[in-house]
Design goal:
Largest sheet: 15 strands, mixed
Radius of gyration: 28 Å
Structural class: alpha/beta
Shape: globular
Length: 806
């Protein structure tokens, strides 16, 4: 989409201050900047982030067009800038983005709890041979993602397929107005992403609002869901309702792409939706049947893992067409560590429209603006475009095939690079990922970054707008790895990150984390590093307060933020009430440091039978901080609630709250208080050997397990050196193998252990889940009479962490 600023200002009902410019890119995140001259930046304002803070930096990087709620104080220093002032920048983004609707003859919107992205890609596979089809990139289905998707609709499209996702009540109305679809498909309404809704009925009602929009002519859904069917009939009177039933579907839907794999219920449902959409667009029965047989599963995961030689490897197994490359490059750009080289390894990709020469030219444009310095192309199409592609990067190499690449390059050819792998299915890029990923130990800790976001948003929804969240990433992100968690939370708009010790904070700064970082237990011996990295210490004693002030004055530091810890009842660390007058006297007598926040820890927020003690702590905190504010030369923030406190005592939210174990998907409260959180970490391994042993044989060190029957015993490569506690042996726990429980046999060894798989259909190479969505971490902590924190943080550093987005 291209248009001028004057036209945009007219659509928004605002005036343009400054010169008119042609706009091609709507920018909402300064880290995604590619082409400054063609970008229009929207200064979005969230609960804990304000886009206006980034205007000066963007101007310095070449951006000249801005949509703002108010002119920044430094506007006079930006004489070339063009400004459009609006009451709400998010609404303005949605209005401008919706201009892209005119580029398509028909808009199909998809909503539902699960399967939206897969259905969108299946429809693209089915429709694109006969129609020009545009679609949302990846899962761009939020209040911000939808207008960006609409803006990206290619001119001359017959159909545009747009996802619409919501996380709480009140969000669908704005999306419905923004999209104004002709057809709406509701995939299903299940348990996924339910944290923001009081009930399934409430969720259905909100989803169906999209179908009830005035522009909608046709609604497609599975009428087997009685509650959904009833709500659609209630809200969508006068529209064409295409409510299909499962018994109407062909006996065999899918082809070779689904053989030897379990077909999920939601996949069958998506096939029904795809058939209904294709029929509505006039495709023949024979054409639809053939297209369904040609369908392939969509790889929706984007894995991030440590690579060899200080590399970071991003393996994008999403669709293998060119339109999916831009969002993958944007994801890589957000994760570039200082000093790291951007490398793209890509195969021949499908291109939706135009010639192969046009596709190469388009890819070259992407490379030119994305910052990629090293390009490796694999396949005959890449080799044909070598001259054009080589001209826009510093280094370029081309190979006939993946085998050719693997024969000519090795791990020593990669060092300190952020590597994006983007390959079509036939190229087998998994082999390249295996080559480049550090540590090939079969045991891995999978970390679902989307689950982190869902849990963050769930707790965020329990607090009033304007209340900040301090996200705890100490102890290497509760075992999950602090950097990727920190990067994800920075994208979410958290107010602060909190680490345990100074070294953790320095590592985050070294890897490119720029947001405020609080150090919770800083036995500081290197103040120079603390000041240089802008790490904000918790101060909990008089000796430490005097030390911080002395060191700040020594290094000429002024107005340095510190966080005062108060002991209101935990009795671990912190100032008591009698010390506060002296604390305030010291702070008021210096300009070197200032109070950024005052806080305390609740000892019993998750203990339902000890509310009297919690309320006593909260009253003390209120009294302590009221006194401090009355004595302070300037205001400061207050925070006292932890994960359990956010849910049980939200009236004491103050300015911020701290989110710890809840962020990582561990429930600490009964289900009537705390909804089931999304599992973040999954510890899994594989079976490396299976043997059959006779009754009476012993297994493992010390002969501690004697078989009571003829048995099949599998060995798995995880032991106490990986975090598999020795108390888990001898049948004390079970692990999941192909959905069934397999008890441990014998003692846990250092690097391996054995499990009984006598009653389980399994083979070498099958996955074994130690804890995750199918096997709770709580069952392990209960056995050890400890807490889930200990289990999560005990996973050894030698276990490879694999991060992924869905």
């Amino acid at each position: 989409m291209k248009t001028g600023l004057n036209e945009i200002a007219k659509v928004l009902g605002s005036d343009l201050t400054g010169p008119d410019r042609e706009i091609e890119i709507l920018l909402t995140d300064s880290r995604s900047l590619t082409d400054p001259a063609k970008s229009l930046f929207f200064a979005l304002c969230g609960a804990s982030n304000d886009g206006h803070r980034y205007i000066s930096d963007l101007y310095g990087r070449g951006v000249r067009a801005f949509v703002v709620r108010h002119l920044p104080s430094e506007a006079s220093a930006m004489p070339e800038a063009s400004w459009i002032v609006v009451p709400e920048t998010l609404r303005a983004l949605q209005t401008v983005g919706s201009l892209g609707r005119s580029n398509a003859s028909q808009i199909i919107a998809i909503t539902g709890s699960r399967g939206k992205t897969t259905l969108k890609e299946w429809l693209f596979q089915i429709l694109s041979p006969s129609l020009e089809v545009s679609r949302s990139p990846r899962s761009y289905n939020s209040q911000i993602g939808v207008p960006l998707s609409l803006w990206g609709i290619r001119q001359g499209s017959d159909v545009a397929i747009i996802e619409a996702g919501i996380s709480r009540m009140g969000e669908m109305a704005s999306l419905a107005h923004c999209i104004s679809p002709d057809t709406v498909v509701i995939t299903n309404v299940g348990d996924a992403h339910s944290q923001g809704f009081a009930s399934r009925e409430e969720k259905i009602k909100e989803k169906v609002m999209l179908a009830a929009a005035d522009s909608v002519r046709r609604v497609i859904y599975c009428a087997d869901d009685a509650a959904l069917d009833a709500e659609i009939r209630r809200q969508c009177k006068g529209k064409e309702l295409v409510g299909w039933h499962r018994h109407e579907l062909p006996a065999e839907i899918f082809g070779a792409g689904f053989r030897d794999q379990e077909i999920k219920d939601w996949e069958i449902e998506n096939a029904g939706h795809a058939i209904a959409v294709a029929k509505s667009l006039g495709l023949s029965e024979a054409g639809i049947r053939k297209a369904l047989k040609d369908l392939r599963r969509i790889g929706t995961r984007l894995n991030v893992s440590e690579g060899v030689n200080d590399c970071l490897v991003i393996h994008d197994s999403y669709t293998s067409d060119q339109s999916s490359l831009a969002p993958a490059l944007d994801f890589m750009k957000r994760r570039i560590a200082p000093g790291s080289k951007e490398t793209l390894i890509v195969s021949d990709l499908l291109h939706e429209t135009g010639s192969s020469e046009d596709a190469i030219a388009s890819m070259a444009d992407m490379l030119l603006t994305s910052g990629v310095r090293r390009f490796i192309g694999i396949g005959p199409g890449m080799k044909r475009g070598a001259e054009k592609l080589s001209s826009v990067v510093e280094e370029a190499e081309f190979f006939d095939s993946t085998d050719d690449f693997l024969a000519k390059l090795s791990t020593s050819d990669f060092c300190n690079e952020t590597i994006l792998l983007k390959g079509a299915p036939g190229f087998g890029f998994g082999r390249i990922a295996q080559l480049l990923e550090a540590r090939t130990h079969e045991t891995v800790l999978e970390v679902n970054l989307d689950a982190v976001v869902r849990n963050y948003n769930y707790f965020r929804s329990k607090l009033p707008a304007g209340t900040g969240l301090v996200a705890m990433v100490k102890a290497s992100g509760y075992g999950a790895g602090s950097y990727e968690i920190a990067r994800t939370l920075q994208d979410c708009g958290a107010s602060y990150l909190a680490v345990a010790v100074l070294d953790e904070g320095i590592d985050l700064r070294r890897r490119g984390i720029t947001m405020p970082v609080m150090v919770m237990n800083p036995k500081v011996v290197n103040y120079r590093q603390m000041f240089a990295n802008r790490l904000e210490p918790e101060v909990f004693s008089m000796a430490m307060l005097l030390d911080v002030v002395k060191e700040a004055e020594k290094y000429g530091v002024n107005d340095y933020p510190i966080h005062i810890k108060l002991d209101t009842g935990m009795h671990r660390m912190g100032f008591v009430e009698e010390e506060l007058p002296e604390v305030m006297r010291i702070l008021n007598s210096t300009d070197s440091v200032r109070i950024a926040s005052a806080f305390s820890h609740l000892a019993t927020a998750d203990c339902l039978d000890m509310d009297d003690y919690t309320l006593m702590q909260l009253k003390r905190f209120d009294r302590f901080t009221d006194y401090m504010l009355s004595e302070s030369k300037r205001p400061f923030l207050r925070h006292v609630l932890n994960s359990a406190g956010i849910l049980r005592f939200p009236e004491f939210h103050y300015d911020m709250a701290r989110l710890g174990i809840g962020l990582y998907g561990v429930n600490t409260l009964p289900s009537d208080i705390e909804q089931s959180l999304s599992v973040v970490s999954t510890l899994r391994t594989v079976i490396i050997a299976i043997r059959e042993w006779k009754k009476g044989e012993s297994i493992g060190y010390g002969r501690r397990s004697i078989l009571e029957r003829d048995s099949r015993v599998a060995t798995i490569p995880i032991g106490y050196a990986d975090g598999m506690n020795r108390h888990f042996g001898r049948g004390n726990i079970t692990v999941k193998v192909n959905g069934k429980d397999a008890p441990t046999v014998g003692n846990i060894c250092m690097d391996a252990c054995m499990i009984d798989v006598t009653d389980i259909d399994c083979r070498e190479g099958d996955v074994v889940e130690i804890f995750g969505s199918s096997a709770s971490v709580e069952r392990l902590s209960d056995l050890l009479d400890t807490i889930p924190y200990e289990i999560l943080t005990s996973v050894s550093p030698r276990v490879k962490r694999v991060y992924y987005r869905e």
